[in-house]
Write the structure tokens for this entry.
Amino acid sequence: MEGLIIKNISNDYLVKSVNNTYLCKPRGKFRYHGLSPLVGDHVVFDEGNGYLLAIHERKNSLVRPSVANVDQAIVVASVKSPDFDSYLLDKLLTVISYHRIKPVICFTKLDLLSDLEKENIEKVMKYYQDDGYEVFTNDDIDGLKHVFKDKITVLTGQSGAGKSSLLNRISPTLKLKTNEISYALNRGKHTTRHTELYEVVDGYIVDTPGFSNVDFHGMDKYAIRDNMNEMFSFLEHCKYRDCMHIKEDGCYVKKMVECGDILKSRYDNYVHFISDKEGERR
């Protein structure tokens, strides 16, 4: 039979097929070939004897959380209390794209803004939307429900941004405690660390808030550039084909920043990312 691994504790894997769930263990050949099944893997299994037989090819995999075949990551970005953090948002979007995961942005707490602050943040939201990102606010619950459907999703974002509150509105039966997504989903009943998928609006969400330690591990400066939409899409207009948009003359991206067509905070964050990456090599 074929199914989806939805839970892993130690060497036990809970596999969901069309009509039932089965507890399975991996065959010895996995260890021999250095393969470790992950939550999110599509597998072939022997339901009678309870063995995993094969793992279908993955489109991606993460270390934290330990999960495979993630379709999307919803970045929850607070605009007030805590204040909007464009640096973290851009870093998350870049790392998520690098892992071949679709990034989705959800801005929260717009109701706490003054009229002028709201006007300014709406311009920022429109920029990201025009830049190719799917953008929501936490008031667009119907739209977000549609996003979850038939997808494996991780949530990430700054602490206090409202991730638990957002999930509670999307799926009230979860009854998550504020700032305790993982603990609340797991009900605090276990001490063994494990990864699990939970059904939310005809899709699955990973039982952790998302990437626990976001960095550019495995990425060089070109990977950073190529996973920031406008830094890559405008590259063809630059004088040099390998332009990094920083010190080069004839750079189209820098002209776009100067005329306001590229968000200055976005460009400044990009320069900071590249500087940090080059600093690691010294």
User: Anything to note?
Assistant: The radius of gyration is 21 Å. The chain has ten helices and 13 strands. The first helix runs from residue 28 to 32. The first strand starts at residue 2 and ends at 9.
